[in-house]
């Protein structure tokens, strides 16, 4: 570990020590999304004139000879585009849209169920096909807070680029993020990311520094292109240590008549001496070589390590929780220590190329996973071999189709087709994927099983209509899921496999309307209809609705931009999944109805020059409804009225 810390410090010094030299590189402009929808980038203008100073150093200037280093000279790109031969570079974000969505659950569009605080365990509300059809660890409660290798941004900068984000949430829910990147020369960029979470308990904290979640994470990345342009390398390293002091939820008045569900800081909670930890390290490498023009070979290497740990002192008051919800003590009666390690090694080799508007790809992939637990014995080794490929066609910027296939020998597969046009986007996915390692084999102090589950099958159809009018943008959608052999955690917190199929029909609507010049109204809503013998295994609210009404304008001759408004979110009554910290899994329950409750927030986003600030007052309608508050998970309340502030400060020189 000392070597890794030394390497990080060394690279940090290299980043700050190198001089930056200008370079010229062509750009493929890409259009961004209209205002009101999450945007990945915006249209890039042509490069300004580059002039050379004495001594060979170059400066980027406009016609007025002013320095114009900024978002248009600090671009990033993604590996998934490089792999598909898409030349796309995106400006770093300085937009105000959704800026007040700073915490991960909010960034998802409130499409996750958590435990009411930043850094707590979280799961998606809606079912989706897993990206990995082979065996995964099964411990995904903290995926939302991890910068995975496949989401890493690589940069091309004309000057050193630094992005500092600091968010101070009410109740001491604090996040700090730092991004740095610079080009060593026109073909080589290097950078790093740092992020921390310090979230004080919202339920029964003993003091300001009584943290629910503490995270320290960092990553490093580099991109390099040879002088003749034939060889390209992308590499990154990620590390996260995420520690949570579990609380088990509010003690039900059924067990303690003095306990109140909406006492917040004075609430009685089950656990005070139980800790969960998720520690991850990833090494990732992608490189390709162009043998002849339009035809490349490539190689992908991944090495992953995940160490999941849960400890509890059963000689303390925490014992009451386990006596009620997890009565067996299979290993020790005075303490619980559940530790699970998951290691993965992956190599993928393939070739790809372009034939006019067609892109093609074929690959062979080998994956070795090792699952280890002190309570199981010898590590279990799983070897997987995949073959697959892709065909994609692009006709202009607005028409394309994709067809991709992946086959895991001899028992799993994934087929996907996608069609995109100016009026319609449609996809079909058919997959047969393996249950997680944790669902197949687990041994802890309170649970134990060894299962021989069949693979899970799914058919998914998605369609989105695109209607763009002068002052209105509408996106009706429809998602159809058929899932069989679904594996889930039942009311006894046991991994089980459904015997019947489930059908999920989800129509939706997303819109953005310009009501009057600078006044905007946006919203999205989804209705879920469940049917089939396995329908009850999916605890999805019938209605999920988000909306926003805001005013946006520029002031003081364009030096100040402001967004100010109200937004609301709503989920209908549902028996939302409960969370078991001992196994770090959500499981179904039939005793607690997370009742419908509209939450209204006030927000103010402002940009002065390139610096953005936010103010958000959460839950302004508290004590205005029939209930004094709301729940996001059984016995975990949502935020009370709190004020959040934040600042994002980019530096381009």
Automatic annotation (TrEMBL):
Domain of life: Bacteria
Record-given protein name: Porin
